[in-house]
Amino acid sequence: MLKIITITSACLALMLTACSKEQTTQPTQSDANTTEHSQTLRIAAAANLSDVLPDIIAGYKKGKSLPAQEIEVTYASSGKLYAQIISGAPYDIFLSANQEFPAKLAKEKPDNLKSADKTTYQPFTYTQGQLALYSTTKSLKELNPTTLNELLMNGSDSKITIANPELAPYGKSAQAYLQAQDIFDTLTEQNRIIQAENIGQAFQYAHTGNVDYGFVAQSQLTAMKATPEQFYTLAPDSYPAILQDGIVLSDATAATDFSNYLRAPSGQQYFSKAGYLAVD
User: Fold this and answer.
1) Are residues 138 and 228 in the same domain?
2) Is 86 annotated as a binding residue?
3) Which of 49, 86, 103, 179 is the most buried (most CB within 10 A)?
């Protein structure tokens, strides 16, 4: 009887030890999330987001308690980023300055995208941009739509920059505004329109005084705390709405999580403060 009891106790001890080892090797849900978020999140972002996106990323990491989450951002024109994605650039999220390029990706579903289920991810609108006229050499205080057009038409040697309409939505909206005012063709014939590669370069042309006026993003002016006489914010209904869409390109949980944060009130507050129009 004593022998039987001794063997049973030994077996019981072994069973308890085995159970203990099995329990300690199973990852918890928290560990799984940490592993998922430890992977670098790669974002392709339109150039106009360079002022606001760093603050949003910092708010996201703090609010989600993910201080170690690595997030890499590449800024360029939306057209250039789209071309990179089509060519195989390994981005997890594409934040465009328009709706066109994310819609094309959703429709074309390139084979190089990392999403296992390419029907899952659809474009989403995350903000609306505002167009403004900016100058460091001319006063723009107390302008109105009529005096704005007169200002642009006066002075045959003054130069005006817009971002490339073929690549940059802000440039496309700026061109549409000038066409609606019936002054685009005249300015073009007079060689007074200087085309920049993207909205960032258009801002630099105007900021350095290389041109007299620049059609730029209101967010750029908000970031630099431009004075009232340096800019004029165009009425949103005077040019095509600059609705900015994004699209998730991979199955990374962090990609979906971050895109949801952008559209939540916590993310939208950053856009509002930065000179954008919030979206629902």
Assistant:
1) yes
2) no
3) 49
